[in-house]
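Figure 3 (text version): structure tokens given as input.
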């Protein structure tokens, strides 16, 4: 059984005078422990897909399943990490990390201990009583990820989580976040505009068409033998994969290709 399935998902936005088709027959699955990246033209509906998976939005038609259960509303089994860390400046790092459990009314002694373990495990112990403005951008993103992990979700949704960082910090934080997700054995769905980022982190890359977005193709990266996103970028196949995906994103074809979700990039 797949941990996440989208089956013929459609979404249409309605106003008093118009209707806008955002997604059309989106169909894909994610297996437990996979790291999936979603790329596509600007405005095609990548973030909308994450909102549907989280239950913030409901599809106009089609069905979404998480852990075998249909998503019918906001789902606490999903963790959502945004481009900006949204740490509260008046709360210290430990208090910020506790926030999700406080909202869910699950701040038990056991969960408090787990938070302390995560803080220590991922190098924030000495900053636990510091405030967000005292941390670097990279460390703030690490704290935001630990806050997301604290609720122990089945699936992590990452919406351009490195977009606000400078290039060098972005590379380091990308490695950092990837390492933490793999160590915690989490399933992740990443939305990004950065093809390099997608190839360096993902097991598979879902390419969306222009709006109304549909799944145009799914690529398998086959770079699992490399231990980190930075080392993946040194692979001889990296530039070939970039060129292939770049061309596919920029072609003018309107016909959706037949998808083979298990086939590697040739």
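Below: residues designed for each position.
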């Amino acid at each position: 059984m797949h941990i996440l399935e989208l089956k013929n998902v459609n979404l249409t936005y309605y106003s008093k005078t118009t209707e806008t088709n955002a997604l059309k027959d989106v169909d894909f699955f994610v297996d437990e422990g996979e790291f999936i990246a979603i790329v596509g033209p600007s405005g095609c509906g990548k973030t909308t897909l994450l909102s549907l998976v989280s239950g913030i939005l409901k599809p106009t038609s089609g069905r979404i399943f998480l852990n075998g259960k249909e998503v019918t509303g906001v789902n606490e089994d999903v963790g959502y990490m945004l481009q900006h860390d949204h740490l509260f400046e008046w709360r210290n790092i430990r208090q910020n990390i506790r926030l999700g459990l406080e909202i869910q009314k699950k701040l038990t002694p056991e969960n408090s201990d787990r938070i302390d373990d995560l803080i220590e495990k991922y190098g924030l112990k000495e900053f636990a009583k510091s405030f967000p403005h005292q941390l670097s951008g990279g460390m703030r993103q690490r704290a935001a990820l630990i806050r997301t992990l604290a609720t122990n979700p089945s699936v992590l949704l990452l919406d351009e989580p490195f977009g606000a960082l400078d290039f060098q910090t972005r590379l380091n934080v990308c490695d950092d976040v990837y390492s933490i997700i793999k160590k915690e054995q989490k399933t992740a769905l990443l939305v990004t505009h950065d093809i390099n980022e997608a190839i360096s982190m993902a097991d598979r890359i879902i390419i969306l068409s222009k709006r109304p977005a549909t799944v145009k193709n799914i690529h398998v990266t086959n770079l699992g033998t490399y231990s980190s996103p930075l080392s993946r970028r040194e692979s001889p196949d990296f530039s070939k994969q970039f060129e292939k995906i770049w061309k596919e994103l920029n072609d003018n074809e309107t016909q959706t290709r037949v998808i083979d979700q298990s086939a590697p990039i040739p």
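Residues 252-258 have pLDDT under 50 and may be disordered.
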